[in-house]
Amino acid sequence: MAISTALWSFALVVGLLTLTPGLDTALILRTSALGRRKKAWGVVLGIQTGTLLWGALTSLGVTALLTASHVAYTALRWAGAAYLVWMGARMLWATLKGQPTPDADEVAVLSGVDSMGGGWRQGALTNLLNPKMGAFYVAVLPQFIPPGTNHFSMGLLFTAVHIAVGLVWSTVLIGCARLLHGWLRKPQARRLLDRLTGTVIAAFGIRLAFSN
User: Fold this and answer.
1) Residue of 212, 211, 207 whose CA lies nearest to 85
2) What angle do CA 141, 146, 148 make, to 5 degrees?
């Protein structure tokens, strides 16, 4: 398989994966729709940082050890599930109490500073605590690397393609979410968004906990 053909084929696969609504989409839309543009980009960069690490570790063969170890994979899966359920439950609990959903950088937001730090941490943790990302790269990435090429450099090249696709789609999501900002100034709309997002995140955590 020629390198250019392999790159386009891989881009198609990860493009379809990126366009499928999921946890990353929910986090980016929610953060951006609340008017926190810098934090939304922090979430995006955190997610892509996780993608880069998974791609690099796969290219080095490290994640193959993770997926081969049932204990290590299970431990990471339960840690990721617990984090997602906690994040979703916190959003839902805050809406039931009639309070704004707290964020890691809530003080900065209230003071008028839209920080990227909290968003980056949230995006990176969400991505890195999902062992299915590692399993996806172990199962898919080697299938596209042409024979006779350097495994590590080609792995990073394919990961860069995945990141580029993710950045383009995230730009679209943030632009669309900004249109909802005026409507979300209403407390009822904010609670509705947080309930939807919290439910999606918690559901992903529960599904991750009980998946094989």
Assistant:
1) 207
2) 125
